[in-house]
Queue: 3 jobs
Job 1
Amino acid sequence: MKWIALLAMSGSLAWAQMRIVPHLTRANGGFETVILISNLVNDTQTYRIRPYLENGTGLPIVSGQVVPGAILRMMPSQLFGAMDVSHFVIEGDGDVNITLAYRDAKQQYSAAHVPINEQQAERFRIFPGELTDVADGLAVVNTSDSPLNVRIRQLNLAGDVLAEASLTSEPLDPMAKALYLFNDDFAHQEGSYFELDAGGDMAVVALRFALDGAPYFWQTAAIPMAPLPGPEMVGWVAVLEPHFHGVSGMVTIVDERTLRLDSFNYDGLGPDVYVYVAQDRDFINGMAVTPELRSTPYNNETVLITLPGNVTLADFNSVSIWCRQFSSDFGSGVFAPP
């Protein structure tokens, strides 16, 4: 039995859509939020905003009109009154635009202007600053219909998991918000990055500010990613269709971290041969996921392929014994239910 580490990054992405502001700063918290409502067309527009408490409780809709070319500048108390609003959803089309300005409450430093969030996903990747110099924070809203356990992992560039934490101690309810500082659970490690995984859609805004007494704000990129494959893919099979060098066998998805290549045959005589993965058998643009197979013959053998921490089965749907030198497929298959 041979053990092979598998590494791949490829995939197709589709995002949920909701126009949402995931974060209004808390009153008396040292920071403030200014809401800028703009009319982008040439006739009067009506804005409709559904506010929420931090626990996800919906509040009555707030509405108003904006004349052509106008920009309304409001504090949350002016727009929502005494309601302790945590975040809100903008209803209707995109002719009314909303921008948020985050700054220190004393207005001594420059504000960060942040657009509304229009892209939700189950997973996000975030590249941190120097955690010894800045505070990297998140506001996360559960935009799915079920409570979510949001996991946070710190990984190095090889995909190894360095540390893990949970966003909250209890599941985050639908439309509820949680705030988080990476500095609370993680130490700075050069070249590392973070991934959030919730198993359901969430809206994320990432903000950074300095720790040296000058609370400048920046918005940092929260990059949406393809969701992890669901349990339904466990047990799927790719049968290798033989082409050259006696290649045959069957690849089974054992679990979310393991593939098993059964009854694998290969005469070992091909040059520059690797196991490749790709979407829809596009192996020319695929990726080698094993070391070179060299001249080793395989005779009805079993090969276990273990995926590293940053790779999911959503990254590819086909596998090949591939000769890179001549771009030749010695045998390949597409994963499908048995």
Job 2
Amino acid sequence: MKNYTITVNGNVYEVTVEEGFTGKASAPKAAAPAPAPAAAPAAPAPAAAPAPA
């Protein structure tokens, strides 16, 4: 572990950093696919025309 003193905008922070794995970096994970758009509601059936007189 390494200890650092960091100053940001005049504020002093004491930080401890743990050294990690020194091998290759893992590949970034693929983003989740976007959800499919919702299907449009079905159009209502046309009203029956009045019977001819």
Job 3
Amino acid sequence: MEREVQVWSQVKHPNLLPFFGICKGLAQWPVLVSPFYEFGHVGEYLKKFPEADRQALTVGAATGLAYLHSREMIHGDLKVQNVLVDASGRAVICDFGLSKIIDQSGYTTSCVGTVAYMAPELFTVLDNDNPRGARTTKATDVYSFGLLGLEATDFLRTLLDGDSSTVFFRSMPRSGLNEDQRPPS
């Protein structure tokens, strides 16, 4: 939770969920306080409002991500469920629990997040040559954003008639690729 507070409290942008503070004593654990977004995440919003401007939502998420990257921050778990929609229909990125600040000690996170949105290079095997595994980067955030954008614009379902997880696992190669064979994010 400390890392999430550290990253989240440093960002102020219309396309990022505002951080109000921490509330202690209401529950067993401290609670992070932010505004409530009644429309929920982009996926829920688009089910309720299928005619919503999907491009504007995608551009809003891209704008929020660009701001994070301009501050040398990586989200680390960008997906449809981590983009809320505010009362004006604007996309707002949330959930900074896996976020990190580039080149700051204590913020080197190994590959974690939502498998269906992970860049291919995050699936490297831990071995003697790579003892800590793959690391999230701005490029892996952009890869995740690409999948989010495809899902938000309904392109994945239309093209492949399946959810992004199904599409992802169908596309995984049966055998691993060598580092030099893998396209970068």
